[in-house]
Amino acid sequence: MTTIVSVRRGDQVVVGGDGQVSLGNTVMKGTAKKVNFLPKHNVITGFAGSTADAITLRDLFEQQLDKHHGNIVNAVISLAREWRTDRALRRLEALMLVANSEKTYLLSGTGDVIEPEDGIIAIGSGGNYALAAAKALVANTDDSARDIVEKSLHIAADICVFTNHSLTIETLPAKV
């Protein structure tokens, strides 16, 4: 399991995640990279779930971005539709966050396409801990989006046994 959190604040959008890979109750690896920057489309992706499923979804999302000329809204909707209706894809067990300079979305295999109202969203086993921390930090500090993501992930790692302190954090300029 893992924790992925995204925060939009000021002129930044940030997606970060931890590096823990667990198999049952055993930590198999601590430095996995579950947040990726896709430079061709200036998009950040983050995944919670199995590695093979996450890579498959990232590749399919990139194909949808190519097909829709970088339009994240159309790419997200097309991927969600394909993920929900395709027999093989429907079995993928993962959640996906995607963000560009304008939009952030959570996607699931059940067809969910969620854009957070406040620019803060999280997924994974420690997602609710990171989400609560990020919301509190946004409401009560002037910290940057990057600092909030980092602090939120550390708080989640202190609470969730499936989250660690090995972080990958990617930042994009946000359109304000």
Q: Overview of this structure, please?
A:
- This is ATP-dependent protease subunit HslV.
- The protein is of the alpha+beta class and 176 residues long.
- The chain has one domain (3-168): Glutamine Phosphoribosylpyrophosphate, subunit 1, domain 1, CATH 3.60.20.10.
- 34% of the residues lie in helices and 32% in strands.
- It has helices at 51-67, 72-85, 127-140, 145-159, and strands spanning 3-9, 12-18, 21-23, 26-29, 35-38, 43-49, 94-99, 104-108, 113-114, 120-124, 167-173.
- Strand 3 and strand 4 form a beta hairpin.
- The model has no long low-confidence stretch (mean pLDDT 92).
Number of contiguous helices: 4
Shape by Cα distribution: globular
How many domain units?
A: 1
Mean of all residue-level pLDDT scores: 92
Say how many strands there are.
Answer: 11
Low-confidence stretches: none
State the major sheet.
Answer: 5 strands, antiparallel
CATH architecture: 4-Layer Sandwich
In what order do the strands lie side by side in the largest sheet? 5-6-7-8-9
Under CATH at level 1, the class stands as: Alpha Beta
* Helix-strand sequence: EEEEEEHHEEEEHHE
Cα separation of the termini: 33 Å
Q: Structural class, judged by helices and strands?
A: alpha+beta
Report the helical percentage: 25-40%
Radius of gyration using CA atoms only = 15 Å
Q: What is the beta-strand fraction?
A: 25-35%
Question: What do we call the CATH homologous superfamily?
Answer: Aminohydrolase, N-terminal nucleophile (Ntn) domain
